[in-house]
Amino acid sequence: TGRVDKNVPMVCGHTAPVLDIAWCPHNDNVIASGSEDCTVMVWEIPDGGLTLPLREPVVTLEGHTKRVGIVVWHPTAQNVLLSAGCDNVILVWDVGTGAAVLTLGSDVHPDTIYSVDWSRDGALICTSCRDKRVRIIEPRKGTVVAEKDRPHEGTRPVRAVFVSDGKILTTGFSRMSERQVALWDTKHLEEPLSLQELDTSSGVLLPFFDPDTNIVYLCGKGDSSIRYFEITSEAPFLHYLSMFSSKESQRGMGYMPKRGLEVNKCEIA
To answer: Where are the WD repeats (predicted)?
Structure first.
C-alpha cells in the first residue's frame, strides 16, 4: 500500500501541520517546508536517509504573519527560496543568511495566493490569486509585467505554471463548474492559445510540467486518473495524449526528479 512503518524516523521541527515541502534542485539532501506555524524551515537529510527523528533545521525563516502554504526553490540560483503565505505576501529568501531579500506585499496580491511558479531561468514569477487574476512578476523590480483577469470564468481556484517558450498553462473552472485547461502566450494574454473543457469533477487540477518532453500532467485531489498533454509551438498547441487510471483516488501529488529514476525503463511518468 506504500504505507510506512509508524515508527519510521521523521522530520519533526514544526509546531503545527506542514502544508508544503520542496526538495532543493541543487542539493538532493536539502528540503524546505512551510507550515501553519508561520515559519519556513530548511532541513538537511543525511545520506542514506534518517535513522533518528530530525528536530533541528539548518535554518528557520521567519517573516510571514500567517500560515505558509507554498515553498518553491529558485530553479537556477543556489540558496534562493520563495515562500507564499496566507498573509498574501511572497518572500524571497537568501537561505545562506536567513534574510528575506525581496518582499511582494499585499499591494501586489490583495487576496489569497493559490499558486506560484518560477520561469525556467528564474527571471519571472507566475502567480494565481483569489482575486481571479494571474500575474507575471519581475521579482528583481517587484513589478507586475503582465496580468490576466479571469482566465477561467468560474469561482473555484486557478493554478498557473510556466511551460515552454514563455507560455503559461492554467487550470480552472468554467461558469458551469466544468474543469478547464488553458494555454496562454505571456505577451498576448487577451485570448488563450488553447482552451479545453475536461469534465465536471470538483477537485482542483494541479499541473506538473516536464520540460524535457514538453508534457504536462494534470492530476486532482480525489481523482483516480491523471491526464497528460503535449505542448507544441504550432496550433493547436495543446494536444491530449492519454490518461492514466487507477482504482484508488489520489490524496496528494509530488513530482520525482528524473535523476532519481531509471528513464531508460520508463520514458515518461
So the answer is: 11-45, 61-103
